[in-house]
Specification:
Largest sheet: 4 strands, antiparallel
Structural class: alpha+beta
Shape: globular
Strand order of the largest sheet: 2-4-3-8
Order of helices and strands: EEHEEHHEEEEH
Number of strands: 8
Number of helices: 4
Number of domains: 1
Strand content: 25-35%
């Protein structure tokens, strides 16, 4: 029955894993920065295809301390920083995926340890279920926008991700 609910261990975290298309996990940033990054990636790596941006944790207000290059002035800006996942639509080779990931790590967009872990495991993984943390429960990630880049080979990997995400959103009780 399609409406049947399943009960599962709330401490078990489910993920979507692949070695066939690019996934990014971007923490402590703004959605506008994520959108700009995706646009740059789509421009520089034309074969990545369209991108789905998903909010993995809601934004929280954080103080950002800025120092001018003269070192004389400091200011504080309050920003809404959240955690986001990005799922690209096109099939890529693992070498191509790792080239993009290494470039993002060199630019300090991704953590350099991320390369070691991904290289060792040979895949990329994003959470698709709720997650119990000491601070509370992180809900199922929520899609917020798609940045389309139409190409002849625009893949269906975003659809594959969404099918699994919606399975966890609609089929499991807390």
């Amino acid at each position: 029955m399609l409406t049947q609910k399943f009960h599962h261990n709330p401490y078990l975290i489910w993920g979507y894993s692949t070695s066939q298309h690019l996934l990014l996990d971007l923490d402590n940033t703004t959605v506008s920065k994520v959108e700009k990054l995706v646009t740059i990636i789509q421009h520089e790596y034309k074969d990545v295809g369209s991108a789905l941006i998903v909010e993995s944790s809601p934004p929280k207000t954080a103080d950002i301390h800025l120092q001018h290059c003269t070192g004389l002035h400091r200011s504080i800006q309050r920003r809404q920083l959240g955690n986001y996942h990005v799922i690209f639509s096109n099939r890529l080779s693992w070498d191509r995926i790792m080239k993009i990931v290494r470039t993002l790590a060199e630019l300090q967009i991704l953590n350099k340890d991320y390369i070691k872990i991904r290289g060792f495991r040979g895949d990329l993984t994003l959470r698709v279920s709720k997650k119990v943390t000491p601070d509370g429960v992180k809900e199922v990630p929520k899609p917020i926008c798609t940045l389309f880049k139409y190409a002849e080979n625009d893949g269906n990997y975003i659809d594959d991700y969404l099918r699994l995400l919606y399975f966890f959103e609609f089929r499991f009780d807390s």
